[in-house]
Structures are given as C-alpha cells and as structure tokens.
C-alpha cells in the first residue's frame, strides 16, 4: 500500500509547528502503525532529512509510552488499542492520515509528536508510599479480599499512563488517570491507612500541574486503551470530599 501522511513537525518546545506531507511506501497490511512510521523515517534518514520524533518502547500495548493523535483520535480508530497495536490493515491503499501530538497545557510538546508527560509521574509521587508492612510475596489466598474488590482494583491498575484520556478531554483533565491510580489502592486493605491523605495529595498535585476539571462527559473512557471506567472518578471525588470534611 501507499499511505499519505500529514504530520505535525515542531523542532522544539518553543518553535512554531506545522503539518507536513509525507508518503509511506511500501506499507504492508501486516505492519503496525509505528512500523509504518519507521518506513517513513528510514526514507527521511536516507535523504539526509530529520526523522519524525515519536515515542515508543514496548510496542506491545503495555508500557504507555506511545501516544499519537491519529485523525483527531488518541491512539487512532480502534477501541481499546494503543497506537503501537494499531495495524495498517485498518487502512486502504491511498488513504491520508493526519498525525498530531497530544494537545494539553500540562503536556508541553518537546518535538514533533513527543510531549512531556512527567506531570503524571509527579501526581503518582504525590501519592507517596503505603505504610502497610506487606513482607515477602504472600500466597495468593493468604490475604482475604472479596472477589469484587480485587477485580475493581485490578481493573484500575491496568492504567498504563499513556495520557490519551487527557488528550481526548476538552478540559485536558487528568481525572481518569489520577482516579485509576487512587482506586487501585483504595479497593485493597493495604491502601486504607493513607487513603485519605493520598487522595488529597494526588488531587491537589493534579490541579497544580495545570490539568482541567472533569465535566463528566466520558470522552476519556471512550478512548482509553485499557478500558478504565469513569466509575473510578466517582470514587476519587467521593474520597476527596470525605477527606476534606474529616478531622
Ligand atoms: S486512564 Fe487510560 S487513557 Fe488515561 S492514562 Fe490510563 S490507560 Fe491511558
Ligand atoms: S509502545 Fe508501549 S504501549 Fe505502545
């Protein structure tokens, strides 16, 4: 296949950006989306031009490093799929695809399609440690946790920190990410001791990083590659307000 691309190019954080046209040729339907970008970059390098900067690491949908707006949708058209797991069989010969970086004040553009997502790390750091002494790895059945609680904790813990939820939100809210990180401990016994201080610290850090407020429209849930539910945001809000009125 031959695929036409419009790609956001920006030399640095303060440089002006623009969409530039490229052609990926040849593209196999079996290639992943990032392998298609590798083809474009190999061509650019051969011509002595600057390759397109984009983030990736595992390319298996588990690390959260990749993240590109594909035709205006974070991670592209396939539900519950990271852009590294999107495949070119999704497209037809001659298609034109537009690629842009995440757009959010709290995620400044570093270069081309790469943004700085360290604000997410600082939210997690604000949550601090749990003081429960959990010792060595216990037998799976040694700590009795209701199945529903462990399921909800594991569902929340699937968040890979990609930032698609922020990119999809008109307010650039990080509520889905932050609530997933809060909820995976809030459902478990080990997370109870610092539950109150953790939610206040993480929500305050989220606000200080410049993310917007949640207006409950669920674009985040619709684009999340791990299917994180907005019910985690409800838990975060309940815990936060309880913490504010508790002594
Ligand atoms: S909640 Fe979903 S979209 Fe947001 S960072 Fe986590 S995995 Fe990515
Ligand atoms: S590169 Fe790891 S999730 Fe895409």
Topology:
Elements: E1 3-10, E2 17-24, H1 33-46, E3 69-70, E4 73-74, E5 96-100, E6 109-111, E7 114-115, H2 118-126, H3 147-157, H4 164-168, H5 175-186, H6 195-208, H7 219-223, H8 231-245
Parallel strand pairs: 1-5
Antiparallel strand pairs: 1-2, 3-4, 3-5, 6-7
Helix pairs in contact: 2-6, 3-5, 5-6, 5-8, 6-8
FE2/S2 (inorganic) cluster binds at residues 56-59, 61-66, 82, 84.
What are the main properties of this structure?
247 residues, alpha+beta, five-stranded mixed sheet, two-stranded antiparallel ribbon, 8 helices, 34% helix, 12% strand, binds iron/sulfur cluster, binds FE2/S2 (inorganic) cluster
Structural class: alpha+beta
Report the uncertain regions.
none
Roughly what fraction of the amino acids lie in strands? 5-15%
Number of strands: 7
What is the rounded Rg?
20 Å
Main pleated-sheet profile? 5 strands, mixed
State the order of secondary-structure elements, H for helix, E for strand: EEHEEEEEHHHHHHH
Given the C-alpha coordinates, what overall shape results? elongated
Mean pLDDT: 96
Terminal Cα span: 64 Å
User: Helical region count?
Assistant: 8
Bound small-molecule species: iron/sulfur cluster, FE2/S2 (inorganic) cluster
């Amino acid at each position: 296949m031959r695929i036409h691309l419009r790609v956001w190019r920006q030399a640095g954080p303060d440089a002006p950006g623009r969409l530039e046209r490229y052609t990926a040729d040849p593209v196999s339907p079996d290639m992943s989306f990032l392998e298609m970008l590798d083809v474009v970059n190999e061509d650019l390098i051969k011509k002595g031009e600057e390759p397109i900067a984009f983030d990736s690491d595992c390319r298996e949908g588990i690390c959260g490093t990749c993240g590109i707006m594909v035709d205006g949708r974070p991670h592209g058209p396939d539900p519950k799929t990271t852009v590294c797991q999107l495949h070119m069989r999704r497209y037809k010969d001659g298609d034109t695809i537009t690629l842009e970086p995440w757009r959010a004040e709290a995620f400044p553009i570093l270069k081309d399609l790469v943004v700085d997502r360290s604000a997410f790390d600082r939210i997690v750091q604000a949550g601090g440690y749990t003081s429960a002494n959990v010792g060595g790895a216990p037998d799976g059945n040694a700590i009795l946790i209701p199945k529903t609680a462990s399921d909800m904790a594991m569902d929340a813990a699937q968040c890979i920190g990609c930032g698609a939820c922020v990119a999809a939100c008109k307010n650039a809210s990080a509520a889905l990410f932050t609530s997933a990180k809060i909820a995976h401990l809030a459902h478990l016994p080990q997370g109870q001791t610092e539950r109150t201080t953790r939610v206040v610290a993480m929500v305050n850090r989220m606000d200080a990083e410049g993310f917007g407020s949640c207006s409950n429209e669920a674009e985040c849930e619709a684009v999340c590659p791990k299917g994180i539910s907005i019910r985690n945001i409800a838990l975060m809000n309940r815990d936060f307000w309880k913490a504010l009125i508790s002594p």
